[in-house]
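tool_call: predict_structure(chain=1)
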Amino acid sequence: MTREESPGSRDTGAGPHDATAARLTSAARELGEAAGAVREAGLAVTAVATDPALLASLGRSPRRGLPAARALAHGLTDAAGLGYAPDGGRAGRLARLAGAGAARKSLAADLAVSALRLRIRLCATRQAEYAAESSVRRLLVAVEAGLPELALRILRERLRVRGAGRTLAALTPALGDVSAWSALADGNPFNDAAAWHTVTGTSDDAVPLPGPRREARAGSLRSRAKAVAEPPDPAFLDGLDNSGGITAHLRNLAALGHGRMLTRHVTGPDGVARCLVLLPGPGFVLPRTASPQELAAAVAELGRAGSPYTLAVREALLRSVPEGMPVALVGHGHGGVTAGHLARAPEAGARLRLTHVVAVGSPAPPRRPHDPRTRVTALTEEHDLTPRLGGRGPVPLLPPPPGLLEITWADPSYDVPQCHGAEAYAQSLDKTAPEVRDRVDELLAPYRGRAGRTVVHRLPAG
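tool_result:
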């Protein structure tokens, strides 16, 4: 198998001998796939049943058309088949709303809820907070039993005793699944779309986020996407960790702070000059207005390849990295998202020779890079809420893209939001997941060596 054909891999930290977790994962994945397939079948049958050509044929040949129409209607509404499954198109959506009002059951939704229950139960094999008799477990049981008042009382008591940060950290591994589960089980059809993306492991990239004057704003942001090299700071440079491992990079990311990037030329053990790039992510600047749309658009801008931060990083790399020099990008949080954007850009296979991308605690794992030789690694601690914002859960339903290595582990030592910090990730890798640390260090071994020219750039806010 060549490097270009190398499949992606995922290490959930459950251990190769954890048979219970393996069975739960397999069953949850199969149920989720079945739920998606049944929903797609309902959409397809609805499209046929509401096709104007079929309706027109009823008048021309009622003896054949009426039995066909009855069979389609039966397939969409039979409790022993797809359940109540009309969806898609104006007529399908109206029928679905009517079915929700009448509390009609859907096989697809039942399968999806069962998959989500198994995914939450999987957390119990990995998280002490999900064990029997814990407050988190009692909270989830109350939610599953449809007892929101009891769940709310348990949550309030948990918040009073343990605090918001610790409670949110404990709930984070199952937060997306619980939210999707609640949306599908609450009888409200208007919040089901996001839940289905969680069930099927997809994202709703096609739906644009509303925001006033997006086109005009995008042009103005691009005009400000400039990276400014800061004057050398000997004290800062002397304080950097030069040991070269992933935990050293994370501590340097913490010292670097938001809105800056660091490029360092390194002569590796083989004598080859390479460039290591650290991307902490942009600093958030709130919009000048109090508009929720402006705030949402500013946050969403970070996930776009044309954000001012991403454009400024690209410009700084093209200006400061010699053509053909091997480059490794290590990004934390939204810096990891930016690293993924750069890896998919055409320059990654021509002007910039990206050999490695490591995204730590990022909202979305980097997708397939432009250059198939680029090694991509995504690291996630399961109590970190930020990766959950991109829909990532403990049981991803889609296989990772070729060349992507995803590694997750559990460390309940930190509250939210502290567990997302670069320093917290470094400590977690050293104390809880040293095997993960060593695995990534092995990948980045060519970038450990004698440090050379180091430049810090100030970048535009997100």
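agent: The first helix runs from residue 19 to 49. Proceeding to next step.
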